[in-house]
Design a protein that fits this description.
The protein is of the alpha+beta class and 200 residues long. It contains 3 helices and 6 strands; from the N terminus they run βαββαβββα.
Length: 200
């Protein structure tokens, strides 16, 4: 994941009521400023909507928080609709002049955003998300087709980002769903209810 360890709990970061970016205070990211991150978050929000009832049913947002030390510039986090977040920023920490502020490819962006969404939801709601319907255990973003002993950074795995489950005691790890497609894993009755909610 992008970011430095320990940036997730910076005092009041992301509390509701802070000002707009550029004023030295946290605020919702300006639409269009982080297009790759916005697109990835829209995909992750499909999974949130399909599997989790958030307070007020508001989707997750991108939150911009100025670096309190003034070295890295603005930091972008995945946050609840009220601005609260947890974990590392979702863009590159190295924002020197000319550096790319977003990860280099769509799969990397989607993985980083999914991880950040998972951290925020699990920490602030105090529950595991997302859960594998088959095993009842928490899942993690990984490239499709990875094994149980896969390590982040390995280049051998080149599949699209999926929600991966470690499996049960038998070690039957598996790819549960492409990120953004968790609705397809729901039983028919729940899928139909989700579609009806989406039409409202």
């Amino acid at each position: 994941m992008s970011g430095r360890a320990g940036t997730g709990d910076r005092g009041r970061r992301g509390e509701p009521g802070w000002g707009e970016p550029g004023q030295g205070e946290a605020g919702r990211a300006e639409a269009g400023r982080w297009p790759e991150l916005e697109a990835a978050l829209a995909v992750v929000n499909r999974d949130v909507r399909a599997t989790l009832t958030l307070p007020g049913r508001e989707p997750l947002i991108l939150m911009v928080v100025p670096d309190p030390d003034g070295f890295d510039g603005d930091q972008v986090y995945v946050a609840m609709a009220d601005g609260r977040s947890h974990g590392n920023p979702v863009h590159s920490d190295d924002l020197e002049e000319g550096a790319e502020p977003e990860p280099g490819d769509a799969a990397a962006v989607l993985t980083v955003v999914a991880e950040a969404a998972q951290e925020t939801l699990m920490e602030l709601l105090w529950q595991v998300w997302p859960l594998c319907r088959e095993h009842g255990t928490g899942m993690h973003p990984r490239p499709a087709g990875t094994s149980g002993d896969w390590c982040p950074g390995e280049t051998a795995a080149v599949g699209p980002p999926v929600w991966w489950c470690r499996g049960g005691r038998a070690g039957d790890c598996h790819d549960a769903s492409l990120i953004g497609e968790l609705a397809d894993t729901l039983p028919g009755k729940e899928r139909r209810a989700l579609r009806r909610r989406g039409r409202r």
